[in-house]
Amino acid sequence: MTFSTSRTGAAASPPVGREPAVKLGKTAAGPEFSALAQASILIVDDEPGMRNFLVRTLAPRCKLVDEAADTDQASRKLDSNRYDVVILDNIMPGKNGVDWLAEQRAVGFFADAILITAYADLDTAIQALRAGAADFVLKPFRSNQILNAVARCLDRVRLQRENYVLRYALRASSDRTFLRDNLIGQSAATLRVRETIARVARLPTSVLLTGESGTGKEVAARSIHSLSDRADKPFVPVNCAAIPPEMIEAELFGHIKGAFTGADSGREGLFLYAHGGTLFLDEIGELPLPMQSKLLRVLEDRRVRPVGSEREVPVDLRFIFATNAELQKEVEKGRFRADLFYRLNVMQIRLPLLKDRGDDVQELAAIFMSKLSVQLGMPPVPIDASVRAALASYDWPGNVRELRNLIERTLILGAFPDDFAGPRTNGQSAPADSLAELERRHILGVLKEVNGNREEAARRLGISRKTIDRKCALWDV
């Protein structure tokens, strides 16, 4: 919590009439206030002169500035709008600002609050801190003081959200070197996907990405975001299968202090962190049924209710969903809500299998070799004719993810595994085996490397443990 105590221009009341208009225009151009351009501000003060001064100061710089003459009016505005910062007078008729702020925190208010008061003492500062005030500005103050306070709040919140989203993304996926922002390849299948993405990216329509694991659904989602008008806003990826069912509501919607055991403080959820940008819900077929109904309501109302909160919070989001399951079959089996499926299935883009992408595998292998060799600090391994033949003939059950893992393993070993590249005689590549035999030898080779650990083999190959079990049963291994 910070304290702005400068008494520049020390009149007993806000210098409404004496604040030079030219100074307001001059500070508007300052880059230090650029964060205000997209901000929504609520001013709560019973003095019309102070509200007028703050509106004149903030309105030319902010996206939205609302005002309330008392706490009751402010509460109603919070019920219907979402604000980034609330500027709150402490001494008001009926209820003071600190008490009202504490009440709002208890029912699901997460935005930063700046307390303004002419009566400052240690007790008030302590109460403001406990109530969750982010800043404390003493009256009288000049326009630059309140602008600096608002800018600090916005910058702090932005950094906190970016930090949380980045840490969440790192926890949710171990594959951080994947070429996440580019859909690589010139095959007909890849070009069709790229063309569809270009058509839908600038529209607000929700998108459902389907296809087997490892086909690049997150890559496609990031491409949609980067081509949309939200490209400079957050892109928040969420793996629904990676969050424990008992925690998924709090992770997505947030929670207030005391909402459940261990909730020592309130926190915005991933939906609110993605506000203004794109929320990518991967493995949507793994979402528990109770959460499916809540997600449906969010899609319809564009409002979320944090766990334990009495208030719904408006959100502005572009939704992208992904699944490797056949959702229509999941609906028939009763594991996925039909109404949610029809709500998601507005625009479906199916990502092709790597084996159906022709020469893309060669281009991807070369790019992975170049990128990963730099990351691992190891010399690239030449991709000779025998390896290219094996790349072209292999079935790639783990798709692009399996290819990436193969290249990383090759760099670590210093050569392509013999069971993948095939035997070599006098520098000539041997005729490629059947696809089934190549697949068998590759999977068994990886199992041998991990001493029979099927879970680890599945992770390295980018396929499911069930696929490993099924193949081993077929081969009587």
TrEMBL record:
UniProtKB keywords: Activator, ATP-binding, DNA-binding, Nucleotide-binding, Phosphoprotein, Transcription, Transcription regulation, Two-component regulatory system
SUPFAM superfamilies assigned to the protein according to its UniProt record, in alphabetical order: CheY-like, Homeodomain-like, P-loop containing nucleoside triphosphate hydrolases
One annotated GO biological process: phosphorelay signal transduction system
Top-rank lineage group of the source organism: Bacteria
4-aspartylphosphate, modified sites: 89
Residue ranges annotated for the Sigma-54 factor interaction domain, each copy included: 183-412
Gene3D superfamilies recorded: 1.10.8.60, 3.40.50.2300, Homeodomain-like, P-loop containing nucleotide triphosphate hydrolases
Stored InterPro entries: AAA+_ATPase (IPR003593), AAA_lid_NorR (IPR058031), CheY-like_superfamily (IPR011006), Homeodomain-like_sf (IPR009057), HTH_Fis (IPR002197), P-loop_NTPase (IPR027417), Sig_transdc_resp-reg_receiver (IPR001789), Sigma_54_int (IPR002078)
The keyword Phosphoprotein appears for this protein: yes
Domain annotation Response regulatory: ranges: 40-154
Region feature (Disordered): 1-24
GO molecular function list: ATP binding; sequence-specific DNA binding
Protein name: Sigma-54-dependent Fis family transcriptional regulator
Origin species: Bradyrhizobium forestalis
